[in-house]
Amino acid sequence: MTARVTVDPELCVGTAECVRIAPGAFRIDESRGVSVPLPGASATPRELLDEVAFACPTRAIAVRADGE
Amino acid sequence: MSERGLLTTFTATITFDRYEDIRAALFDPNLSRTFDKRSYDEGNIRDGIVSIAHGAVHRARRRIENTQFRADVLRLYERDLFPRVMSDLLDRLIDRDRVDLFPIGEMLSAVLAARRAGIEYDPASLDDLRTLVRLVDAFSQGAAILDAKDPDAVRALVRDAYAEFERDFVRPAWERRAAVVAAVRRGEVTEEALPHDILTVLLLHRDDPQLELGDDQRVVREVATYLQGGTHTSAQTLVNALDIIFERPDADAILGRIASDTLFAQRVVQETLRLRPTTPKAKRRAEADTDVAGVRIPKDAQVVLDLEKGNRDPSVFGPTAAEFDPDRVLDASVPRWGLSFGGGPHQCPGRAVGAGFPVPSTFRVDDEHVYGLVALEVQTVARRGVRPDPERPPERDLRTARFTRWLHYYVRFEGRAAAR
After folding, report:
1. pLDDT given at position B4
2. pLDDT for A1 beyond 50
3. How far is B26 from chain A (nearest CA, A)?
4. Which residue among A59, B22, B40, B333 is least enclosed by CB atoms within 10 Å?
5. B352 with B370: CB under 8 angstroms?
């Protein structure tokens, strides 16, 4: 099952922890200083996405099963 | 008035000392670092700096300032700039067999912290560097004012330090950067011409009302915050690591491993941070009624987060939690430094600069790994044969209740003596 990954741009402060942990799933939009999910994020192993969400210091990242 | 001259009257004081409870508190948006007007606002000691800003202002500030902590910049610093700076400075500063390592550690860290903050000094001048370290000492006392033994003296000291810092270091750098920013805005040069530092991004974005940077003094304090943060914790951690090692019967073996294994040196640093957090007890104020770990916290309660105890929580770090063990195996979700860099929105932005990236539980890292500047410092002094000075005991910083802070740490260098 693929996951739906979102980043709340109001909460994100661009620490880039998500990029460090899962560089294939996130990038920093430097014009806004916030993280955005890459197209491949949903195919990233769920375990890694959960690690990213746990590590995010502002809890800006949400990972849900598709359809949730 | 209560709490040693603070103006805030707390409705309650609640302490957390379990790892998970503290982590939950650090993430609670109702618990603020905006603490007390007398401690922070009066005399403009900490007014409006990112460390105590809350909510939308804090997030906006962090978005622009975090650009200076990207992984590629960290790698450039630790692989190219820092080894050269460190080698050159140590050659100049270790000018006898016995030296005070704490100010040397501060000077090492101040070089790159000044560069990141965006202030300018004469790199050939040790006097300039010593002045910066003296100012950092004042700013560090200001940062720890809630634990100061004489808060009024600290306020006066910090006010004077800001004035000197602005006049001699910030204003000259500000003028040069403002000129480049203006040239970029006129389209005369591209953004590539902009220096990569905190002062530049503040000047570039300060018109954004969300940042609340209209007051020049607030910009000065913000730059000072990054200089202080990038200098003081690193120097204290270098000294604390050696202090822990020197107390052990296997000190020589540990120093030998550090000298030959950078990842081990990094684990030593991260384990030191866990056992000796620079801020052993963090404090928060409840801006609204909230619940943390099942505990009801009323508005205007003081919340004390006992990081020292939380970092030794056996349910997280195992039965040997109180012992120094750089080889301990931890769950992948637990940072080896525990909660020493805070957590949640106010997590220290310079964490990876000093301590590097988290060490994976496999102890295997790739070429992208960042070891952190303190690991390189510990490794370099280990290679130079650092040992305790039996004739001069180290001196703790007794101006603060924070037990992990040192004023002087005397060492000798066996390698230097042997080389003569």
Report:
1. 46
2. yes
3. 9
4. B333
5. yes
Superfamily covering domain B13-419: Cytochrome P450 (1.10.630.10)
* Main-chain phi, psi angles of B280, to 5 degrees: -65, -30
Distance separating alpha carbons of residues B265 and B244, to the nearest angstrom: 13
Distance (Å, rounded) from C-alpha B224 to C-alpha B311?
29
Q: Which of B66, B344, B347 is the closest to A33 by Cβ?
A: B66
Q: Tell me: the pLDDT tens digits for B150-186?
A: 888 998 999 999 999 999 999 999 999 999 999 999 9
Q: Beta-carbon neighbour count of residue B153 at 10 Å?
A: 12
Alpha carbons within 13 angstroms on the beta-carbon side of residue B39 total 23
Q: Give residue-wise pLDDT tens across range B127-155.
A: 999 999 999 999 988 888 777 888 889 98
Chain A residues in contact with B349 by the CB 8 A cut-off are 15
Residue B127, strand partner residues: none
User: Which of 2.50.20.10, 3.30.70.20, 3.40.50.720, 2.60.120.1440 is the CATH number of A3-65?
Assistant: 3.30.70.20
| Shortest alpha-carbon distance between residue B263 and chain A (Å) | 18
* Integer-rounded Cα radius of gyration of chain B: 21
Segments making up each domain of chain A, as ranges: 3-65
Q: Vertex B173, ends B169 and B175: CA angle to 5°?
A: 125
d(CA B390, CA B395): 13
What residues in chain A have their Cβ under 8 A from chain B's Cβ atoms? Answer: 10-16, 19-20, 28, 30, 32-34, 51, 54, 57-59
